[in-house]
Design a protein that fits this description.
single chain, 88 residues, alpha+beta, 3 helices, 4 strands, globular
């Protein structure tokens, strides 16, 4: 499992959730440590959450991610149909 990853907005500590919260991504501020939380598991929703939070970390504006039509859900569904799955 990846523990850290550097995106455009900084280096993130990656943690997996087993909760009802889909995901979370810090935005840079005064703190040195940035956190991203994604869903555990290998289902379509976990893939969608990982893509969604990664796009936040890349600095994509919220209007593209949290609007009426979540573009990351479309990308996740496309990748899932192509056969992408989490490697254990």
């Amino acid at each position: 499992m990846v523990r850290t990853h550097t995106f455009r907005l900084g280096k993130y500590s990656i943690q997996q959730l087993d909760a009802k919260l889909d995901g979370f991504c810090d935005l840079p501020d005064a703190s040195d440590t940035l956190y991203m939380m994604i869903q555990a598991g290998g289902n379509l929703n976990a893939l969608h959450t990982a893509i969604h939070e990664a796009m936040h970390a890349e600095g994509l504006p919220k209007r593209y991610l949290d609007g009426e039509r979540d573009l990351t859900a479309e990308v996740a569904r496309f990748l899932w149909r192509l056969g992408w799955r989490r490697a254990e």
